[in-house]
Amino acid sequence: MGTQQLLLIVLGVIIVGIAIAVGITIFNNQAYNANANALTSETTNYASSVLQYWKTPISQGGAGRDIANMTSEKIANFIGFTGADNTLETENGEFTVVGGADPVVIYGLGTEKKGGSYPLVTTEVVLDPGTVTSEITSATELP
Fold this sequence. Notes:
This protein has about 140 residues and is of the alpha+beta class. It is about 45% helix and about 25% strand.
């Protein structure tokens, strides 16, 4: 009888341990996915600001639909990226804008780590038709 009770206790401890490990894994995956979704939302918002800058007349501080006015520095300044190299840091991650050509590309690198890398969202803004596309991958640093 004592051996059966010890066996049941050991079996119970093993099952609880496995359940805790699975719970931690599920939580980490959810945090990573939530971070990727937040990055996508932010980069899409910044892409809308890029389109706004593209369509705003020069007299009002925009690009006036002139590709010569679409430099990384001008775009970053318009949408509020104040860091070095046209970057911005938020609680969701670090963002950078690469302009000067069509399309304008916005990168967002997340803060949640999974498998040694962070979520990376690449959002492309094609200026003339005004289309925005995003792609989620993973990376260890901003490109």
